[in-house]
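Changelog note: in this version the structure field was regenerated for every chain. One regenerated record is shown below for reference.
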Amino acid sequence: MSGQTAILRAEGIARKFGSLEVARDISLTLPIGARHALIGPNGAGKTTLINLITGNLKPDAGRIILDGTDITAMQAAERVRRGLTRTFQINTLFPGLTPIESVLLAVCERKRQAGHFWRRLTGHAEAVDEAFAILRQLHLDEVATRETRHLAYGQQRLLEIALALATRPKVLLLDEPAAGVPKDESAALFAVIAALPSDMAVLFIEHDMNLVFKFASRITVLVSGAVLVEAEPEAIRADPRVREVYLGQAHNG
């Protein structure tokens, strides 16, 4: 990654729960526009690392640098305002709202107008236009006024990404975006992710190696809370250590 400008750096991140080390001297660099996969066996510390980067957990050691600023001591909400946004493994949507209402609320929150959200939509014309543009970008415009509970699960996962995009992130962290999505929908979901703005860095956790190798430009493998290897996809595919601890399980050889 020589010569590429880093938008996010994690340096020497460590975290213990009692005597259990869940993160051991983890370093990770995301250039602007990266499509970077985080993989590893269950319990490797992938979601823990996301939680440490986003401020849901505090590291015992190390630093997190976003766009040149040390954000290690910042609260999660401040990190979002500075351009670091995530989605979760488990759906966190409001089932009774429509996609346009949900994304509009997120846009108004970013603009510090959420307290006036329930006034007439004509009072939020610019925000409505922005929310609809986000839904169109993720191919959700045709279901913009359908209650979220009635959307296909793949569409619900896309709506979570739409809510993240409403914060205007510089870095988007996706924790298993295809979890629970039928296999025939997951490739389409990742195609949409791949088409996100080229200046937005994306770090994603994913267990489906076919999706990882298709969409990631770089891969970090975690094992027992530490980085086993980081490399481009073909090097990861050929690495015997990776096949031993992970790919053999995923591919049966």
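Spot check on this record: The radius of gyration is 19 Å. The domain at 1-83+169-253 is CATH 3.40.50.300 (Rossmann fold).
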